[in-house]
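User: Hey, my collaborator sent me this sequence without any context and asked if I could get a structure. I don't really work with proteins. Can you help?
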Amino acid sequence: MAYERPAIQRMHGYTPGKQPANTETIKLNTNENPYPPSPAVFEVLKHVPADALRRYPEPLALEFRGVAAELHGVRPEQIVAANGGDELLRMAITTFVDPGRPIGVLSPSYSLYPVLAAIQDSPVVSVPATDDFGVPRGFAARMNDEGVNLTFLVNPHAPSGRLIPRDEIVAIARELKGVLFVDEAYIDFVEPSLRHDLLPLVDELDNILFLRTLSKGYSLAGLRYGYGIGSAGLIEPLLTKTRDSYNVDAIAQRVATAALRDQAHARDTWKRVREERPRLQSGLKQLGFQVPDSQSNFLLATVPEHAIAQDLQKQLEARGLLVRYFAEQRLDDCLRITIGTPEQNTRLLDELARLIRS
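Assistant: No problem. I've predicted the 3D structure and written it out in structure-token form, which is a compact way to encode the shape of the chain:
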């Protein structure tokens, strides 16, 4: 006999990227940073006191929020810590969306959004992206017409890596009657020359909430630590009402704080990823792939006409290389490839060249 709610019976859970079979596998399917975390992280881990495990952690992550606030030029009350960016997504839905009310997304996008919507028994208002994965005209108006109170945008966009400019984000936020959640999971890999910084908007717009994570830019995907940045009024209910009690553990708070403080190390890894991005893009194009420009740590590569994306993904996996394939409209002829180290990228291009020739 099934005891779960009807909405849970109907839904499909999130499908994570495949984990490697052994340590020799090159993992380019889940957009992790290919470089190690800051050495400061390991120093913190070596000196965690016993009482940090015996006692409950600081419930509001005060030290971390102070460091993050200073880094981003905001106040601590404008930041909420979360057990990974995914918990912040869930908190936002719980806080701003009544059960059964719609949630808005640009499609295609992060595949966890509709899963969390289904848990809330909420329909998804999905607006197709433009041919180049941009936000179409009338996007905000459609959300307003459908009664959407929470709209998700990934920026840079996943899975394409396209960056939505500041003026577009501002226009959408101003027009929306609800909350605009800007998922900046990959923001650390944007070219610095673009001078793309939307965080000052939290003092101009009271309906915009930004997600940041340490999973990508800080090489801490295994830690599960993220945070939200917004106006104090938007953050307050997340911080004091819908956040789980002691939602970020004592070790995670210490490690995350150390990682944020070592900006020199983090920025060096971002630079190394950005330097490899055009080389990998060029190599894929030479093999016949169509690869749009990306401001993320991954590329979306449409396979050559004579190739089948899923077959290539499976053949690469058999050769010890994991890349991501999505069996959904607009993506089923593509592979999403995380940018690895120079050696990993060269190995990928060599294997793809053999497969394409054969």
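In plain terms: The chain has 13 helices and eleven strands. You can pass these tokens on to your collaborator as they are.
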